[in-house]
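Dear colleague,

Following up on Tuesday's group meeting, I ran the structure prediction for the three-component complex that the binding team flagged. I've pasted the input sequences exactly as they went in, so you can double-check that nothing got truncated or mislabelled along the way. The structure tokens for the whole assembly follow below. Feel free to forward this to whoever is handling the docking comparison.

Inputs:
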Amino acid sequence: MNALLLQDLDVFYGPTQITRAVTLSVAAGESFALVGESGSGKSTVLKAIAGLAPKWNGAISVFGTPQPHGISRALSRHCQMVFQDPYGSLHPRKTVDATLAEPLAIHGLNDHNRRIEAVLADVGLDPRFRFRYPHQLSGGQRQRVSIARALILEPKLLLLDEPTSALDVSVQADVLNLLKRLRQEHGLTYLLVTHNLSIVSFLCDRLAVMRVGQIVETADVAALKAGRLRHPYSQELVDLSQRTIV
Amino acid sequence: MTKPLLEVENLRVTFPTSRGDVDVVAGISFSLGRERLGIVGESGSGKSMTGRSILRLIRPPGRVRADLFRFDGQNLLDLSERQMRAIRGARISMVMQDPKFALNPVMTVGEQIAEALRAHGNLPRREVSARVLDMLAAVRITDPKRVASLYPHEVSGGMGQRVMIAMMLIPEPDILIADEPTSALDVSVQAQVLDIIDEQVRQRGMGLMLISHDLALVSHYCDRVIVMNAGRIVETLDSGQLGAASHPYTRALIEAVPRLDETRDWLPTLPRAGGEVA
Amino acid sequence: MTTLSHWLTDDSPASRLQARLGRWYRMGLALWRNRLAMLGVAIVLALVILAVAAPYIASHDPLVQDLTRRLLPPSGDNWMGTDELGRDIWSRVVFGARITLVIVAMVAVLTAPIGLLLGAISGYLGGWIDRLIMGVTDIFLSMPKLILALALVAALGPGIENAGIAIAITSWPAYTRIARAETLTFKNAEFIAAMRLQGASTARIIFAHVLPLCLSSMIVRVTLDMAGIILTAAGLGFIGLGAQPPLPEWGAMIARGRSFILDQWWVATMPGFAIVIVSLGFCLLGDGLRDVLDPKSGDRH
């Protein structure tokens, strides 16, 4: 079964059309990357799936269920999102514990203690971080909390919006390893939005290259690694990232 | 190497906190000639503070001390604020991370560049505008006339950064400090902007200090690279020898970056204090 | 003592309670280091103590007249002298603290929460609800506070409760504006988006996530506004529309002392001092709280 299916997705912000006829399917358990520069509409696709960009035409279905326009409570158990900015994605006045307890309370789940302890262990955060406020955490630790918040409802699909672009390289390595391990352990499906092709190479199975709202090419990561992307724009992106590699 | 423009010995930048003074730069020494010098480090390594201390942009309660801080025969730490203003921009200038916050929103791009030129000397009006257009052309803006009449919000990020560079270079400084000049830009634009900086620095024979967290990028554009960690210099390398870096921290930084043809299952990580385990 | 402060400042608290107390402790500590704010705290605390323990602190009954002892200057027996009906001014000032505190409390309890809630709803929901609430707010804001309060008291009839209500009605729009502005700054923040994705209802987001963030700037603003509220109440009292005689309201006391201001200066001056000192106290406290609570300046190492 497909974890995610997008058909001819046109997303609008007000009168402006951001994406055009985006069609892609992500198999359950797969890690799929949407690659492009800013303004390519890659983040907008994520927002439309999550329900944060309600104005779209076409079809979105998650695990076979067609999605409504807007936020769906039912979706929240199956699909969660990790945001780019570890400083803006945590409530500044809530402890880690309160942030993690909130989704449990919303969905009437019990056993808070056990679940919070388990998810903290899962994302590699020591239990002593549990009652800290965000300002008492480093960027990497905050991003782990964001990942924990996304995981605590035990969704099967994670939308990752540039999850490491605000982090230092060594912290990025930690978080990338964590994401890779979590996917293996929980059989998660990832839809990753990034501009960094090296991250795609490390974390993903397939990728789609987007440019001004359209997918120009969908390929296996093996093709990326072998430098065999077909579209000239994809190749341009590869060349650019190769320039900065030693 | 040519005679150094800037010599720094035992530079310390200290900030008081509730738990006592903290040295964010803890005694580093380096010199900068008419060359391209890179400073690489992670956040908190003190790399930005090093750049800012050269222009004396560290605000109180931060304190800057050094055994030697010589630029062109003068000790920068001894200069009055007035003398320092004559150096900032004219002799040493700085390109910041995000052009959006560095440009004045109510002045056109052309006026701002002209302002930067006028602030450091009197020139006839016609010559000023000619120099501004030349400068915009030099940073590869194809129709300088049109761009000069735009306001900052009307130009893209990459264009804005090129305008910033034009503004910083037009007084013909001896040293250009670029602090993460491209981290707010897209990859395709990043390379363009760095190429322009590179070209201008070579043509004018200036000294460049490129500050970044990206080791690969810095080594591509610089002659020498200083690697910093926790306020100290870990090692200084010729950029060609990055592969032969000996210090474990530098090696770890290189290894931690995923590659385009990544085959490793796990990325090596730096051992870290605190409760995080991967 | 040191173990307690260690427990409070522990970087890794072991429970929700410890985390919360620790945060309060840090804020308290920051307030403690601010001398002027502590002066404000002392003044406000003194006001509360005066009001609560008025019968024990006052030397005389504030209402009993003694025409043989009228207009006496301050002395060992009457610390602030006596008024034109021979009542002890010190005792009247002390009991007046109760009235001031009641008005202050009424306004804080009535207006701040309403303004806060309306502002958060208006800012978070936007659209026509926002336009409606803001329209009403603008109408109220366009009228001078004291004039509006005057008109209301004239309509409702003079008296301390009506004065409180009038002040309350005139002061909520400012809080709505502040709460709305605050809400707009983080309405599109990722942590709010994250909560929406978790399935949180709009009401839950407003009450559990938006309101706590507006709260601190609201507390600061209300505290700073207290001075103005006290002055408005005194103003109403002064023109006879606030507390009615023989209640010892400070504004009314000044009004009556006005006739003797040249020969018996203490009759009007003593309650005047009380008003100035208490207003100043709230201002200092509000300034100090702003430094501690304001998310833009405080809450950071």
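Chain B touches chain A through 40 residues (CB under 8 Å).

Cheers,
M.
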